[in-house]
Amino acid sequence: MLAAVAVAQNAEDPLSCLELKDVPVPEAAPGWTRVRVRASSLNMHDVWTLRGVGHDPANIPIILGCDVAGVTDDGREVIVYPVIADPDAGAGDETLDPNRALLSERHDGGFAEYIVVPDRCVVDKPAHLSFEEAACLPVAWSTAYRMLFSQARITAGDRVLVQGAGGGVAGAAIALAAAAGATVYATSRTAQKRRLALELGAHAAFAPGERLPHRVDAVIETVGEATWAHSLRCLRPGGAIVIAGTTSGTAPAADLGRIFYQQLRILGSTGSTRHETVAMLRMLEATGLRPRIDRVLPLARIHEGLRALIDGDAAGKIVVAIP
Ligand SMILES: NC(=O)c1ccc[n+]([C@@H]2O[C@H](COP(=O)([O-])OP(=O)(O)OC[C@H]3O[C@@H](n4cnc5c(N)ncnc54)[C@H](OP(=O)(O)O)[C@@H]3O)[C@@H](O)[C@H]2O)c1
């Protein structure tokens, strides 16, 4: 079968480390399910792996792709919950299992015609979503759901700032927070993506660093260094920043004085539990929300999609479809 395989890691030229190869179709071991991949979406995580960030070189080569929608050998239309972990080892929360792995970290991922995953990772695909739409959800939308509802615990009427509206997680956070009755402010570097933020449900959109009309209860942060100071300044006393990513860098000035004096809460967030993914799918069904797709490409053009992600040239998720 055709697969996109990370064969090396290079911080300057990550795309040269991804090869399209013919590899054997995987067999499902007992307790595992084989899924014929119909669509898989791209995430910054794929780029980090190719750059050698947060990915053990001992696990190269590996098939990339952590977002999968497809069909099991026995004909079920499914999405794949992408965290391979033991809930018991995380005191009931599999994202807290010290040995957890996102798909494509230690197990082959979804940029391929077939994938095998633990039975518990298989979740029924909502019938109203296409495979392309469903493939946008497991990583970006589940991460955003956990950030908003389990970490920040936003409620209707809260004010929420989402930094970097053009991103996959950020776009999902805008849509979910607005649907939950929050007032949503968003920032983005381009006018086009600020317009996109408004289409997704933001009440107002700003250039990075701009003053907001009001301080906010929560900030959804995945940009990191470039927006951190603004995120801290925008919070009301006692407000929370939930951080799940650092696309622009990991080491901003901490501004500790502001954090203790304003009693700010800084919450890290990674992935989602299976339960949160299922709840997010139910929320989409209840609200009619759908992920916004920037473009759909064949697997053979995956380098082009990853290039657009690196260049910040995507307004919505980029999907690889495997007919
Ligand atoms: N912890 C987790 O479980 C988890 C899950 C998913 C993703 N992540 C991480 O979260 C981050 C976002 O992931 P994604 O897949 O949503 O990425 P993405 O779709 O590629 O989005 C990239 C984002 O970065 C912003 N950005 C990039 N460089 C910037 C800069 N110099 N200044 C300001 N904004 C900048 C873009 O904002 P504009 O609108 O301004 O272009 C956009 O929001 C990544 O670092 C990823 O690894 C973590």
UniProtKB/TrEMBL annotation:
<protein>
    <submittedName>
        <fullName>Zinc-binding dehydrogenase</fullName>
    </submittedName>
</protein>
<dbReference type="InterPro" id="IPR011032">
    <property type="entry name" value="GroES-like_sf"/>
</dbReference>
<dbReference type="Pfam" id="PF08240">
    <property type="entry name" value="ADH_N"/>
</dbReference>
<feature type="domain" description="Enoyl reductase (ER)">
    <location>
        <begin position="13"/>
        <end position="320"/>
    </location>
</feature>
<dbReference type="Pfam" id="PF00107">
    <property type="entry name" value="ADH_zinc_N"/>
</dbReference>
<dbReference type="InterPro" id="IPR036291">
    <property type="entry name" value="NAD(P)-bd_dom_sf"/>
</dbReference>
<dbReference type="InterPro" id="IPR013154">
    <property type="entry name" value="ADH-like_N"/>
</dbReference>
<dbReference type="InterPro" id="IPR052711">
    <property type="entry name" value="Zinc_ADH-like"/>
</dbReference>
<dbReference type="InterPro" id="IPR013149">
    <property type="entry name" value="ADH-like_C"/>
</dbReference>
<dbReference type="InterPro" id="IPR020843">
    <property type="entry name" value="ER"/>
</dbReference>
